[in-house]
């Protein structure tokens, strides 16, 4: 069992930056692909970014590509999401998730993730 705890959310003005962190328990973290998803009020949860177990490969959703960067530190059992040039439409609860089944990054989606954090709220004011 893996437990995921997100942190780093908050209120920021449009154009600003935030860095989210996701701390994972368990020695198996380095073997999991990790991803960030987000869910705005009354909307479905959507894919934001994913990173392979080694960190060598990444994938981004169309709406964040070029503005967000996902990274990980396996020694610290932590995955990060650096968010720059934030927009009001980025306002959402951001969730960290882990995939234990060695899926290719291009197949990662909500229904395939095995472990989820409880989320951290990001609010971007205009």
Secondary-structure map:
Elements lengths: L3 E4 L2 E4 L4 E7 L8 E7 L6 E6 L6 E3 L7 E6 L4 E6 L8 E8 L15 E2 L3 E6 L1
Parallel strand pairs: 2-11
Antiparallel strand pairs: 1-3, 3-8, 4-5, 4-9, 5-6, 7-8, 9-10, 9-11
Describe the structure.
This protein starts with a strand and ends with a strand. The chain has strands at 4-7, 10-13, 18-24, 33-39, 46-51, 58-60, 68-73, 78-83, 92-99, 115-116, 120-125. The strands form 2 sheets. Strands 2, 4, 5, 6, 9, 10 and 11 form a 7-stranded mixed beta sheet that branches. The protein has 126 residues and is an all-beta fold. The protein is built from no helices and 11 strands.
Summarize the structure.
The protein is mainly beta. It contains no helices and 11 strands. The chain starts with a strand and ends with a strand.
Give unreliable regions as ranges.
none
Tell me the total number of β-strands.
11
Radius of gyration, in angstroms, nearest whole number: 13 Å
* SSE order, one letter for each helix or strand: EEEEEEEEEEE
Taking the sheet with the most strands, its summary is: 7 strands, mixed
Helix content: under 10%
In terms of DSSP E residues, the strand content is over 45%
What characteristic shape results from the CA principal axes? globular
Please give the count of helices. Answer: 0
Mean pLDDT: 95
Structural category: mainly beta
Span of the ends, CA to CA: 40 Å
